[in-house]
């Protein structure tokens, strides 16, 4: 199946982190994921918020052409006095660069913006 005119299966196959997470997890219950899998990243890019769609399309193109890796999600590390919010971050590495996928949990994850 295509997204942004890109082959979804080829993009997922380019990820060298296939051992991460549980393959049986569905994207409709994304807030319950223990680990992010390549198909979850592709679904987040495919369903990005309107403001992030251009960046999501560009990143999807990059992921379809190069080997990429999921570096994991960011959490409140070492900041016990930090306010809790509903923003989740996923780091994806491709072509020697790291990209932060900033997602909001409402109730499932929705990609709001991408930073490099």
Q: Which short descriptors sum up this protein?
A:
116 residues, alpha+beta, four-stranded antiparallel β-sheet, two-stranded antiparallel sheet, 6 strands, 30% strand
Task: Describe, in plain words, how this protein is organized in 3D.
The chain has 3 helices and 6 strands. The protein has 116 residues and is of the alpha+beta class. It has one domain (2-115). The strands form 2 sheets. It has a 4-stranded antiparallel beta sheet, with helices on one face. The chain has a two-stranded antiparallel sheet with strand order 1-2. A hairpin with a 3-residue loop joins strand 5 and strand 6 (109-115). The chain starts with a strand and ends with a strand. The model is unreliable at 21-27, 29-33 and 75-85 (pLDDT under 50).
User: How many strands, what sense, and barrel or not for the largest sheet?
Assistant: 4 strands, antiparallel
Residue stretches low in confidence (pLDDT < 50, at least 5 long) are: 21-27, 29-33, 75-85
Order of SSEs, N→C? EEHHHEEEE
Mean pLDDT: 76
Q: Kindly estimate the percentage of residues that lie in beta strands according to DSSP.
A: 25-35%
**Alpha carbon gap, first and last residue:** 27 Å
User: How many distinct folded domains?
Assistant: 1
């Amino acid at each position: 199946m295509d997204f942004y005119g890109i082959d979804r299966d080829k993009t997922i196959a380019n990820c060298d982190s296939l051992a991460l997470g549980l393959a049986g997890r569905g994207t409709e219950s994304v807030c319950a994921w223990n680990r992010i899998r390549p198909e979850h990243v592709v679904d987040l890019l495919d369903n990005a918020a309107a403001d992030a769609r251009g960046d999501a399309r560009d990143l999807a193109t990059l992921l379809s052409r190069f080997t990429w890796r999921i570096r994991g999600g960011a959490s409140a590390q070492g900041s016990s006095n930090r306010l809790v919010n509903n923003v989740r971050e996923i780091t994806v590495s491709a072509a020697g660069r790291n990209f932060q996928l900033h997602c909001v949990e409402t109730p499932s994850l929705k990609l709001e913006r991408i930073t490099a």
